[in-house]
Amino acid sequence: MDKRKLAIGENDFKTIIETNSLYIDKTLLIKDIIDTSVKCLCFVRPRRFCKSVSMSMLNYYFNIEYKDNKLFDGLKIMNQGDIYFDEMNKYPVISISFKELRANTYQEFIDNYKDLMNSLYNKYDYLETSDKLDETDKEYFLRIKREEEDTLLSKAIAKLISYLNKHHEKKVIVLLDEYDVPIINGYLKGYYDDVIEFIKQVFSSTFKDNLDLKKGIVTGVLRIAIEELGTGANNFKTYNITDNMYSSYFGFTESEVEDILKEYGLSDKINEIKEWYDGYLFGNTTIYNPVSILNYLESQKFESYWVNTGGVDLLKKLIFNLKKSSTILNEFHKLLEIGSIERVALNLHMNLTDLENDRNTIWTLFMSNGYLTPLEEITDLENVTLKIPNLEVIKSLEKIVNSWFKNNVLTKYNFIEYLINNKIEMFKSDFKKYILETFSYYDVPGNDDGERFYHAYVLGLLTSGSEYFEIKSNRESGYGRYDIMLKPINNDIKYAYIIEIKLANNNNFDEVIEKGFNQIDENKYETEIKEYDVTKMVIAFYGKKIKIETR
Picking from 113-117, 240-244, 502-506, which range would have the lowest pLDDT averaged per residue? Predict the structure, then answer.
């Protein structure tokens, strides 16, 4: 048969179906939602893993406004029996997304929320003349449409549920997509306390003990937000990427990808597809990145198409918050190098205020955002190995880190250029200047954590040179384990580097530097790069003081 069109970036289920675009049949999600006794469900998945398309599908299936639509003809849900067919287009549905509720201030957020409620209420103009609503209801309805409501704004969705139930005499289904966006944005912009209190009120009035509600279904990237909503959301059942239930509905399974590649005549590319876009483990199900698969089908080029832009700012804030956790940066660079991190105790009930203090919370956040995935099905949440899923994510992470350091750390210095051209004295001079400027902002530990801190920091500065050097850390070479090695990637660069990081005290800089050189020589660290012009470098730190020697 002819291969179907590709609706890249299209989240409207109706448009996908009516344009005969590629759609992977996930309609059995409808069956599972009908079958479950759980009234309020939260699906947590990385962004761009088909959550919005699934919410659109649920809207078209349940919404009374689309009665007698033919969108589901030939799809799996239509073969499940009359009990499911009878639920089709039976209920009033409120479908809404919080993805645009990003703001710089709390007042701006409130203004945006008013706009959102105005747009929502405009979809139900017929309620203004409904003989089943009293005058008080209609007065509130008009205040929302005019964006005049302030005191009861957080109850706007709950009131609309009530009005729809009165008019249709049927309970209401609420579909809320990307509920966590304003909460995360509030945390980043400094109005977290205000926004979390407002969203608590929204959830409490909308979902908590609401007799007019048939089902509440919300999606987000982070489970942390749902936990912080307290009693306003304590009737939710959250389905994380660690759960087996619903694990195949978000993203493409292996068999689905094989069918897609067969349709597009690309079955011979399955191994490369696996390397680039496979590797996610949701519950016990292997999942491919759907956005990346669609983009590859269009261009037939292996590139990085996915980056979770919604999580980057939060991850950056945490990684660079070295005052609270001097080991995180070091662990992060090890992760980039070896591709995994061990002994993580997943914190699935965390809140945003925990993030700056807890190593496990930070790595759980990386998993939630799609940058890490469990190595195997999780049986013990207290001891999990997380890995970078695939080549696409590795390349995305490298670009993000390089951008962080180039744009936010290295604004005046050309350390990598100095190393490319072996301008050692210029490197030493500018490196000392940079450390003196920068370390005034950090609380540098004076114990073993201090050496890890310095190691991680130097490694981070050098990461911006990853397009010129293969940058390795704590790897075996010769008879020992070096701190940092820079090995040229192309033949134009003739210089390679072994760097040892040492922690000194105020009086023994020369002693620890000599110890560093002895360590390099005795363990033959240069074995791996002996074909290059090798510079051995020892950098000794004491608080904000630094001494660099090379041989």
Answer: 502-506
